[in-house]
Structures are given as C-alpha cells and as structure tokens.
Amino acid sequence: MTERPRVVLGVGGGIAAYKACEVLRGLTETGHDVRVVPTAAALNFIGAATFEALSGNKVHTGVFADVPEVPHVRLGQQADLVLVVPSTADLLAKAAHGLADDLLTNTLLTARCPVLMVPAMHTEMWEHAATRANVATLRGRGVVVAEPASGRLTGKDTGKGRLPDPSEIVDLARLLLDRPQALPRDLEGLHVVVSAGGTREPLDPVRWLGNRSSGKQGFALARTAAQRGARVTLVAAHTAGLSRPAGVDVVQVGTTEQLRDAVHLAAADADVVVMAAAVADFRPALRAEYKIKKSDRDPDPVELTRNPDVLAELVRARRELPRTGQVIVGFAAETGDGGADVLDFARAKLARKGCDLLVVNAVGEGKAFETEDNGGWLLGADGSETPLQHGSKSRLASEVWDAVSGFRTGSTGAPR
C-alpha cells in the first residue's frame, strides 16, 4: 500500500450526500489522500467547492475533464480503496450491470482494489427484489455492500435504509485498507450475540463499583459481524458516546445480573456468543437506599459478594440447547503478577471456563481499556495460541470472526 493511502470517495445523488462530507473529513484527518468523484445528481445536494476544500483535490463528474490524464481509467487503477457514500439504488443497479455513463461508474469498472458501497435509501427501495438482486450480484463479485442502519429517513418515514454513522463508515474503510479480506459474508444465516461495555454495581443512588471498559471492542465485534452477514444482538452495558452499529439490535443493561439475564435470553437461539463485556466480579452486598453521607468517623467497610460467572454459565447452559454447535468466545483482561504472566493466567481461565476460544488482552495504563487499538492472543480449547497483531479494534474483531468461522468449519481458524 502507498505511504498515504489513496481513496476514491464516490458520492451518489441522495439526501444522505451531506454526510459524505463528514466521511471525507474523517479520512483526510487520518492521513488519507482522498479524491472525491460525485455524480451529477450529488452536486444538487453538495457543491463541488465543498468537496474540493475538504479534500484538496479537484472534483469532476464526467469523463471529458483532464482527458490527457485518462481519469476514468487512472482513478480506479491507482486507488487503494473505492468508497461510495451514499450508494443509491440507481448506483447499485449501474454497478451490478456494468453501466458506465459518468466518471464514478467508469471508476467502479476499472477498480482492482477493495470496493465498499454504503447504501442509503427508503426501506421500500432497499427491500425491493431488484435492489436485493443487485446487492447479491455485487457481493458475489467481492464488492463489500454495507448493511444500512435503521432509523429516521427523509420526511416522517423511519425504517431500514438509513446511512450508517459517518464514523462507522470511516472505520469500515480503514479496516478494508488494513485487511482487504476482512469482511466476507461468512456469517450469513447465523445469530450472533455480543456483550460489550462495563457493568456497574450500585453502592447507593450515586456511587457504584465498576471498571474502565469503554465498550469499543464489543461494538467493533458487533459491527463487523453485522457487515459479515450475521443477525446480531448486542447486549450493551455502559458505553457512553458510542453510536449504535448499523444492522445491530441493541439491548441496554446496567448491572451484571441484568446483563446475565439479557445474554441468556438472547443466547437461547444463538449460533455464536462472544462475551466481550467487562463484567464486574463482585457487587456490594447491600445497596444503600439513600446517598451515604460523609461524616467525621471512618466509613464502614463495604462488604462485597460475588457476581454470577456468566461465561461459565453459558458453557453449561448450551448442553440444554435445542441446537448443537454453538460457539462460545470469552475475553480475558489480564495483568500478570510476580508469579505468573498474562498467558499463564489466561490458560488457566480457558480451562476453568470451558469456552471454545479466549481472547486475551494485556491491560494496564494505556492498554486495551479506553483506547482505540488493541492486541493480544487468541487461545483455543485445542491448545492453539495465536498472536493477535496490535492494531485497530475492528482489525482484532475481524481476526476473531475469522477464527470463529474456522472453528465452525473445522479449519485452524488462524487469523489471516
């Protein structure tokens, strides 16, 4: 890949075109060289001057500008990624049938790099048989057609077809630049349950016992699974500031017992369960009805009681499930001590819990919790140990799903 990744940002003629400006800014601010190629219809929503100011590159829509440079061929040949935001029903149809009547559709035909098309349209258009067939055709050719979000559309309409959050689009684009094969449709037909965030155990109406988990890794796992075709249920504890991933059903919880109940309910018909949440091991034995007041005397000791071991319970419960073959993935945040290192503790935890795969993170100041990046190891019940390259949390998520797919098919599942 070039030192400064080259991205062609195609912009379709839909009302969501204004969000392409946020995607453009997100890419340029993270060091990408972006060339914006709008359709003529897109310029009815956003002027060329806006795209030129944000990208630092000239904007054209037709094939007759800069003819000596042959842009309708060169752009696709030289790009590291072609990203189309929004991909209208019209653009999906043209791409599926190889039509090339402007600079963007010509670029799609000449691209030999990863192509990510992010749809946005009314629900009826997204669900129409013609659109579904076009999407299937494109995915069959290796194009990544993202799942749209659900929510408010234009006017008073709501439903599936909303453009995902711009930050999520930027994340998917960066993932494909890092790992071009990160989003195969290998989870289609599966129900995946992911837990995320940190549980909080109330001491009184104001104070709580908890941890530093932001939920970013669990959200990355849910987002990546949805884009790989799964039906995803995300059981989210406290994850302030994180946007709901597109195509994901979210269940909000607070305490460990609430998370336990929600995960068990969702896991009853799940093919895969990933326990990425940082579940509090203990909770106060008593919760004060009123705020505990400061006084001159020393405070009373806080008595703790052990929380349920949700991961171990899931392993035991799957024996009673009507379906077989459920894969359970645990997470271990470890620090080591003077007598044993991170992997020693992780191996013992894998044996104790009985899950199929265990993702191990070394935690500490600036590691894993409340960061954008992650790394570690993936341990298998078969004794395998695979290093997980340090990188974005979406990259680690994609490696975990590679391993889950490999486990289900009986291959090694080692990340690519």
UniProtKB/TrEMBL annotation:
Signal sequence residues: none
Phosphoprotein listed as a keyword: no
Segments for region (Phosphopantothenoylcysteine decarboxylase): 1-191
Alphabetical list of InterPro entries matching this protein: CoaB-like_sf, CoaBC, DNA/pantothenate-metab_flavo_C, Flavin_trans-like, Flavoprotein
GO biological process, one term: coenzyme A biosynthetic process
Cofactor or coenzyme needed: Mg(2+); FMN
All copies of domain DNA/pantothenate metabolism flavoprotein C-terminal, residue ranges: 187-405
One term under GO cellular component: phosphopantothenoylcysteine decarboxylase complex
Spans through the membrane: none
Recorded GO MF terms: FMN binding; metal ion binding; phosphopantothenate--cysteine ligase activity; phosphopantothenoylcysteine decarboxylase activity
Chain intervals for the UniProt region annotation (Phosphopantothenate--cysteine ligase): 192-416
Record keywords, A-Z: Decarboxylase, Flavoprotein, FMN, Ligase, Lyase, Magnesium, Metal-binding, Multifunctional enzyme
Role, per record: Catalyzes two sequential steps in the biosynthesis of coenzyme A. In the first step cysteine is conjugated to 4'-phosphopantothenate to form 4-phosphopantothenoylcysteine. In the second step the latter compound is decarboxylated to form 4'-phosphopantotheine.
Record family assignment: In the N-terminal section; belongs to the HFCD (homo-oligomeric flavin containing Cys decarboxylase) superfamily.
HAMAP family tied to this protein: CoaBC
Protein name per its UniProtKB record: Coenzyme A biosynthesis bifunctional protein CoaBC
Organism expressing this protein natively: Actinokineospora bangkokensis
